[in-house]
Structure formats: C-alpha cells, structure tokens
C-alpha cells in the first residue's frame, strides 16, 4: 500500500510541476505576443491532477483569472478533485480495515 501512495504522490508532484511550467510559459508567451498553448491543453493538464498548480499560477500572474469560463472550469476541477480525494481515502481506509480484520490480528 505504501508503494501505491508513493507512486500517487510522485505522479501528483510531477503533473503539478509540468502544469506550473506550461502555465507560466503560456503566460510569458501571452505577454510577449507570441504563439500560445491551446486552452484545451492547459485545462487537460488541470484535469489530470494539475489543478493546484493551475490555480496558483492564475492567482500569482492574474493569468486567465479575469476570463470567467476558464476560472469556472478550474474551480470545478478543483472541487471534483477534492471530492475524489476524500472518496479515495475513505475507500482505501475501508479496504485496509477489512484486510486488517480478516488477517486475524
């Protein structure tokens, strides 16, 4: 079980680092007038687990923060990630308790 948590934590760290870098890169591209990363690509990164990084860049750089649809999408993703995290920990706790109780300890 520890291995699974380590893999999940590593994944979330990596996806948030990638999201942070690409959102910051897109912000730089926007301010310099160069070609930007498509919004669907950025939202996909947030969907895959990079919501915390996306929210942070939005707040720090006032990046797409004034654009209501994007802000709403990120907020919705954030709420769904929180719900799934709580459900995931609850399910994992139930499974671990069941394993402990059936192991005869």
Structure description:
There is one protein chain. The protein contains 3 helices and no strands. By secondary structure, the chain is mainly alpha-helical. The chain has one domain (2-102). This is DUF1294 domain-containing protein.
Write the layout of secondary structure elements.
Blueprint: H1 2-32, H2 39-61, H3 68-102
Descriptive labels:
elongated, 3 helices, 85% helix, DUF1294, mainly alpha, transmembrane, DUF1294 domain-containing protein, 105 residues
Task: Describe, in short, the structure shown.
The chain is an all-alpha fold and 105 residues long.
Which whole number gives the mean pLDDT? 76
**Total strand segments:** 0
Radius of gyration: 18 Å
Number of separate structural domains:
1
String of helices and strands:
HHH
Uncertain residue segments:
none
**Main β-sheet description:** none
Distance between the terminal alpha carbons, to the nearest Å?
18 Å
> Helix share of residues?
over 70%
Q: Specify the overall morphology.
A: elongated
What fraction of residues sit in β-strands?
A: under 5%
Secondary-structure-based class equals mainly alpha
Number of helices: 3
Transmembrane segments: 6-25, 84-101
Protein name: DUF1294 domain-containing protein
Keywords: Membrane, Transmembrane, Transmembrane helix
């Amino acid at each position: 079980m520890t291995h699974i948590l380590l893999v999940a934590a590593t994944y979330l760290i990596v996806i948030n680092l990638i999201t942070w870098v690409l959102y910051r890169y897109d912000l730089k591209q926007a301010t310099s007038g160069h070609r930007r990363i498509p919004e669907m690509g950025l939202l996909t990164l947030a969907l895959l687990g990079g919501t915390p990084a996306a929210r942070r860049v939005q707040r720090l750089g006032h990046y797409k923060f004034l654009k209501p649809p994007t802000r709403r999408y990120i907020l919705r993703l954030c709420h769904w990630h929180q719900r799934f995290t709580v459900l995931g920990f609850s399910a994992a706790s139930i499974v671990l308790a069941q394993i402990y109780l059936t192991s005869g300890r």
